[in-house]
Amino acid sequence: MQINVKYSLSLTLLISAIFASTDCNAWGQNGHRVVGKIAESHISENTKAALIPYLNGESLAQISTWPDEMRSAPGDFWQKKSSRWHYINADDNATFSFDHDHTKHKESVTNILEGIHYSIKVLKDDKSSLAAKQFSLRFLVHLVGDSHQPFHAGRAEDRGGNRVKVSFFNQQTNLHSLWDTKLVENENLSFTEYAQFINTNNSELISEYLHSTPTSWLEESHNLALQIYKSTDENISYDYIFTNTPIVKTRLQQAGIRLAGLLNTLFDPTNKKSKMALTQQIKK
């Protein structure tokens, strides 16, 4: 029997990519695109214009999944260093901070908080190349989403819920994957439908969301993760979905609005209404 070598190699690479990306993808593709889609409706016209050269014809929703798609790409960065950009594991009583020295180069980033601040620094720096800014925008869009998934700030001992086995309607999975994908996909909505359903123009709520920093987003996620650890049984069913789906929707909504606020802060100095309260956390 003859084997199509080209097809076999492509299939092998596809399978490898699937398995390589299961540990710390946040929200799955749909969730990330929901975040990007919501952000698109809250960025200013000046920000939209400023983003054009960095988006290269794509939307925020389209680029939101790029860092996950690239994790099986060749090269030392993608194979050995990029995965640590997606999470920050901590003990139960931990507080979050980051080392500014780790944000000087993309290779020196050790966690999601440093990855966010590295990306911000590159986008703020007029000396950054177009390629560097395109890279950083794609990561920033993705990491804002990641930072709102509770188990990207979970416990190190179980790798952010990856080692906590659960059964979702008799399908074996883990706690991280449950929150990444299954609770989102259970709604049976496209990302555009999901974004439309949970988006908001409530000015008071938006103001509350924007009065925050990347550190506080991860602290929120960490505290949620600790609550979820305690309330999760091995067998997941309707009552769990009823209780936790509103949390998923809130976190996606917050991520989209905060992403827009962050982009407005970076790209539209005239926009006062929807800028983030980042103050001293953003440094060149």
UniProtKB/TrEMBL annotation:
Recorded GO MF terms: endonuclease activity; hydrolase activity, acting on ester bonds; metal ion binding; nucleic acid binding
CDD domains: S1-P1_nuclease
InterPro entries, A to Z: PLipase_C/P1_nuclease_dom_sf, S1/P1nuclease
Signal peptide (from-to): 1-26
Pfam families according to UniProt: S1-P1_nuclease (PF02265)
Keyword Zinc set for record: no
Biological processes, Gene Ontology terms: DNA catabolic process
Keyword terms: Disulfide bond, Endonuclease, Glycoprotein, Hydrolase, Metal-binding, Nuclease, Signal
Matches recorded under Gene3D superfamilies: P1 Nuclease
The name this protein goes by in its record: S1/P1 Nuclease
The species this protein was found in: Pseudoalteromonas haloplanktis (Alteromonas haloplanktis)
Lineage: Bacteria, Pseudomonadati, Pseudomonadota, Gammaproteobacteria, Alteromonadales
